[in-house]
Structure formats: structure tokens, C-alpha cells
Amino acid sequence: MGTFGSGSSSESNENTYLDAKEWSVDPTNLPFPTHGDELPSATLPAPIRDGKQVSIPSDFETDLLMTFAYTTCSTMCPRLTAIMAQAQDYALKKGYGEEVSFIETTFDPARDDAKAFRQWADKHRVEMDAGNWYFLRPKSEVRAKEVVQDSYGVNFTKTNSENMDTYMFAHTGLILLANKKGYVERAYKLQSAQGSGPPRVTRQDVSDDLKTLREQES
Spans of biased composition, class Basic and acidic residues (predicted)? Predict the structure, then answer.
């Protein structure tokens, strides 16, 4: 229950390894980066790593899989994290776990702290001991808007709730695959569980593309 694809001009070919896949719309009109686009730069703290500031993409010499989620989500975010965690497991089993980094950025810094991230990782079988998974937390809601929405094009809107501790978000479901040079190879967009459209994005889609990318880069 989602779509995946990419699109760009031929000028991006020198920066990418995978062939572009067609979107049902002009990819230049999409708010998030797609095939051949350079990853937006951002520096955010990583609470589980003692609050260390992590800069994307300059701190990484690996391929990157990125998503944007919040840990009290019960709909799209578990699916996004599960796909990422399964791709991590695949990479580790295939022997190139050190060549791929996984980044999950929250847009709910008020509730997502180191404890919440650890519980989320345990729940979704993220291999934190592998050392290649990064939970990033903007310091404020304003900073989350700047990075997640303005830079990466992942829209999110807080839903109204009488109990402010139980608010939720309506948001874009997105996973990005970028190569070592910091250019997007794939953008996978998930639809909501209630949505209709092309077949859903699967772990196999992501793992197959990651495998091909690793082969092309080797």
C-alpha cells in the first residue's frame, strides 16, 4: 500500500549507479529528493550516542538508508522502521553491514528521547549493537520542521487532541536510499494503510536495490 520510484534527468547519471524508475507524476514536482538529487545537508544530535552531533551526509562514507518517524506512531512508522530493520538484517547477513548506515529521524522531539528510541529499537528488532543505526532528534519542533519538512520534504501535521500527551501526526511515509557520494538512488513513498494504489513497498524492494547498489559500487 505504497509506491516507490525515482526520476531525474540524464545529468544525474554520473552521480548514480541505479537506473531511474518512473513516477506516476513528474518527480521534479515532488517535495522530497528523488533519483540523482543530492541529499540535503543537516546536523542533528543522536541521543543514544551521547548526544553527539551527526551531519548528513558529510559524516558518512557509506551508503545510507533514511526514514522519518516518531515512536508513538501506530500506523505508518512501524512499517517504515520494519522495512529499514529488515534491510539492516539483510545487509549484515550478506556481509556489508559496515558499508551501509541507517538513519531514522524523529519529528516529535518532545516525546522521543534516548529511552523511547531504545524501546522502539527493541520492539522493531533493530540491531543497535551493529553500530550502523542512528536515531536523530531535532532539538525542537521548529528545528524538526526545518530539517524534516523544509529540507527533506516530509510533511507532518500534528492532529488535535484534548489530551496533549496523546497527539498524533499525519505525515508522509518516505525511505531514501543514497549512495556513498551522497546522491539519492531511490525514494520509496508509502501510502497510508487506508490508501489505494500500486503494490506496497516491501523489504525485498529495498534489499534488492541495496544489493544492486553495493555490486555497482564494488
Answer: 202-218
* pLDDT tens for each residue of 12-21: 578 999 999 8
Is 126 annotated to bind a ligand? Reply is no
Q: Return the C-alpha cell found at 141.
A: 519542533
Asked whether the beta carbons of 48 and 128 are under 8 A apart, the reply is yes
Give the tens place of pLDDT for each residue, 127-159: 999 999 999 999 999 999 999 999 999 999 998
- Hey, where are the domains in the chain? 2-6+30-217
pTM: 0.90
Fold for the domain defined by 2-6+30-217: Glutaredoxin (3.40.30)
- Ordered DSSP codes for 74-135: -SHHHHHHHHHHHHHHHHHHHT-GGGEEEEEEES-TTT--HHHHHHHHHHTT--GGGS-EEE
On whether 77 is known to bind a ligand per the annotation, the reply is yes
73 is in an annotated binding site: yes
